[in-house]
From TrEMBL:
The lineage of its organism: Eukaryota, Fungi, Dikarya, Ascomycota, Pezizomycotina. This is HET-domain-containing protein. Residues 22-106 form the Heterokaryon incompatibility domain. Residues 219-240 form the DUF8212 domain. It comes from Karstenula rhodostoma CBS 690.94. InterPro entries: DUF8212 (IPR058525), HET (IPR010730). PANTHER family: HET DOMAIN-CONTAINING PROTEIN (PTHR10622:SF12).
Length: 240
């Protein structure tokens, strides 16, 4: 797992029990996100996406956390092996984080919070589903990086937006006991840029690992279903 030193912005790789406490960012991708290649070529500070990395590190440092993880730059996506490992590990990385900062770039103060929150793009994306469920400690931030609340405090409004039970949002229910069909329903109206990611973004929620085969399109979801069938007797999967 490649982490960012929040003090100087340098990368360091950690394995297994060596992984220290870290903050993690959840967000939706926008223009000019900073990639691992950008950092290696030292052109990252001139891109708009650098502000999210900078603020993640700044907040983490203020909370006494020395390391941070941001998906845009902490994964070398030119390495298929590294990308596969990262996507198969993603849910656990969010779950094991000390704190998760969910940045809602389209949440402003111009509309009352309870009206504006359901309209945020963050709730429409496939990858952010596991990023909502995994972390025990998740705070929502608006466009100006003002904290708007902890997910445990916003249980009722989040349930209304996502259909996810409050007990699950608060980490009080074991995901393995939740019916396959119920978990699938949480993702039903979410979107991903690549077709395959509609399956890959659910791997962690079903505790499944599969190779990534970009280019297989809808076959990825079939492979996901086949793996679920191998690991559970829950027949509700056939509803999907």
């Amino acid at each position: 797992m490649r982490l960012i030193n929040v003090r100087d912005g340098s990368f360091k790789e950690f394995i297994g029990t060596q992984i220290p406490e870290y903050a993690i960012l959840s967000h939706t991708w926008e223009d000019e996100e900073v990639t691992y290649k950008d950092v290696m070529e030292n052109v990252h500070k001139g891109k708009m996406g650098f502000a999210k990395i900078e603020m993640t590190c700044r907040i983490a440092a203020s909370e006494g956390i020395d390391w941070a993880w941001v998906d845009t730059c902490c994964i070398d996506k030119s390495s298929s092996a590294e990308l596969t490992e990262a996507i198969n590990s993603m849910y656990l990385w969010y779950k094991r984080s000390k704190v998760c900062y969910a940045y809602l770039g389209d949440l402003t103060g111009f509309v009352p919070f309870e009206e504006a929150l359901p309209q945020c793009r963050w709730f429409t994306r496939g990858w952010t589903l596991q990023e909502l469920i995994g972390p025990q400690n998740l705070f929502f931030y608006d466009r100006e990086w003002n904290v708007q609340g902890h997910k445990s405090q916003l249980g009722h409004i989040l349930k209304g937006i996502t259909g996810i039970r409050i007990s699950i949002l608060r980490g009080l229910a074991d995901l393995s006991t939740i019916a396959v069909a119920e978990k699938m329903s949480w993702a039903a109206h979410r979107q991903t840029t690549r077709i395959e990611d509609t399956a890959y973004c659910l791997l962690g929620l079903f505790d499944i690992n599969i190779p990534l085969l970009y280019g297989e399109e809808e076959k990825a979801f079939v492979r996901l279903q086949e793996e679920i069938i191998k690991t559970t007797n829950d027949r509700s999967i056939f509803a999907w």
